[in-house]
Amino acid sequence: MNEEFLRLTFGKHMWVETPSGRTLAAAQEAIRSVWRESCEINPIFGVLQGMMGGVNRVITHFCDFVRGPQPELEEMEIKLSPFSYAKVCILGVGALIRHGKIEYRVSEGVLAVTHIGDEIITEQGRLALTPFANQDVLLEPGAHTKLEAVVSNQEHTQFDMHILLGRAISSITKALHNDDVFLICTPIANVQAYGPEFIAATISPTDSYFAVMEGVVAIKMGEQEISLLAGMELRAVEGTTLEAQSIPDFNPGEIYLVKTGDSFASLAQQFNISLYPLSKVNPHIADPNLLTTVTMLLIPKFQINSIV
Question: Does the global pTM surpass 0.70?
């Protein structure tokens, strides 16, 4: 690597702004300076060890320069939370993941990771997020969320996600320990779960919706706190009292005997439900496209698509 290589590499993009706000014009001069220093320290450039040390030094300094100083909060989170990311799988057209000034698009079928502070914006499709084993959050189309905490140690796990807009369906298939935290927040209220399946939606900054399909959740808005049981829903609106009510015609599901030609896709269309709850309530089915006759399925009757 020499100055001619650097000129050819960065010359066409010298005014592109990096995430730290610094331009590659300044970065170009910085990397040249570090390289000259490395050459002075290792004048015999043919020595492999010296060459590799110089290259590593240049790359390290350049990356540190472009990235810029890191916030103290992020450093503290990394120290406190070695497991600080959550896996995501795109189930539809695509989604955007935003980390600070960096924004990138992920396409259907991609398995990616999100870190603390990331914002996730779904488009026409859905996105399945898995912070820990037996914990899943399905983001519906048009959702905008932010990952606030993903912490794991020998004693407990903690998951905290804010729904800025749209709807998320959370499912916890294994009971949490007493010290575990599973928290979903909206701009006006928050819900802490203890092992159920529930919906949380942000309609506006002053209006949220919650519904429980299984188990119980604790919902808090300001000084008010209320427990919401399976088959109940409530609307949390700023300036009003939290009042739970029964979901009309709530029915967890019914048993169905598979017929020739049935598949999860055809059954979802037949019973006007989405594939996600159908697969969640039938974990014994290994391949949803290869159903055998006389197999029994549970058809959920809780219409998640009809809810606010």
Answer: no
What's the token pair of residue 71?
Answer: 């916030």
CATH entry, 75-246, from 2.60.120.1440, 2.120.10.30, 2.160.10.10, 3.40.630.30 = 2.60.120.1440
Strand-pairing partners, residue 136, are 171
Question: What tens digit of pLDDT does each residue of 129-188 get?
Answer: 889 888 889 898 899 999 999 988 877 899 999 999 999 989 887 888 888 999 999 999
Beta strand 157-172 pairing with 181-185: parallel
Please count the CA atoms within 13 angstroms of the CA of 166 that sit on its side-chain side.
22
What is the domain partition of the chain in residue ranges? 3-67, 75-246, 254-306
SS3 label, residue 134:
coil
Report the largest interatomic distance among the alpha carbons of the chain, rounded to a whole angstrom. Answer: 82
Structure tokens, 8: 């050819």
186-198 pLDDT, tens digit each: 999 999 987 788 9
Q: Which residue do the tokens 């409530």 mark? A: 234
Contact criterion met (CB below 8 Å) for 258 and 297: yes
